[in-house]
Amino acid sequence: MEGPLLEGLYWDSWYNNQQLYNLKNSSRIYYENILLGVPRVRQLKVRNNTCKVYSSFQSLMSECYGKYTSANEDLSNFGLQINTEWRYSTSNTNSPWHWGFLGVYRNGGYIFTLSKSKSETKNKFIDLRLNSWITRGTRVIFIDFSLYNANVNLFCIIRLVAEFPATGGILTSWQFYSVKLL
C-alpha cells in the first residue's frame, strides 16, 4: 500500500515534475479527477484454528487459518488496540455483502480512513506495516474512494479488493461505478 496506492491517490507533480498546484483539502488523480473525501480501508480476518488438520500433522501445526466464512470471522480486537483500525467494527448499514473470488464478505471489520495528506497517509501505512496490521488471518482488504471529473461531469465510486486465500497469495479485483451528475 505504501507504493502504487499511495502514489496513485496523492499526485503532487505534473508529468514534467513541476509541482502540481495545490487546491485546499483536495487531491488530484490523473490531473483531472478530484478525490472526494478520504479513502477508507477495511480488513476482514479469520480466527486461528479454523481449519481441520489431519491428526498425524497436528503436532507440527501451532496455527491454522482457514478460508473466510462468517462463522470463521475474527471479531476480536488485536494489535495496538488504541485506534479504530485495531478494533472490530460491526456494520451499521444494510448495504449488500461483497461477492469476491474466494467468498462472500460481510460489512464491518477493521476500518480506518486515510488522510488528505500524502505524508500522513504514508506514515499511517508505515505504522500499520511495522505493527503487523495485515496478519496470517487476513482474508480480504477493501479500499473505497470516490472521484469527480468536471470535464465529463461524472462521479466514480471505486472499490479495490485484495483477497488472501488460505493457501497463500493475493487475488486482486476492482469495481468502478460511474454516475453522471444532473
From TrEMBL:
* Keyword field contains Glycosyltransferase: no
Q: Which InterPro entries match?
A: Polycystin (IPR051223), Polycystin_dom (IPR046791)
Query: What are the alphabetically sorted keywords of the record?
Result: Membrane, Transmembrane, Transmembrane helix
- Localization of this protein: Membrane
User: Polycystin domain: from which residue to which, for each copy?
Assistant: 1-182
Topologically, how does it sit relative to the membrane?
Answer: Multi-pass membrane protein
In terms of one coarse class, where is the protein primarily found? membrane
Cellular component terms, GO, for this chain's entry?
membrane
What family is it from? Belongs to the polycystin family.
Q: Quote the protein name from its UniProt record.
A: Polycystin 2 like 2, transient receptor potential cation channel
Species name for this entry? Homo sapiens
Gene field:
PKD2L2
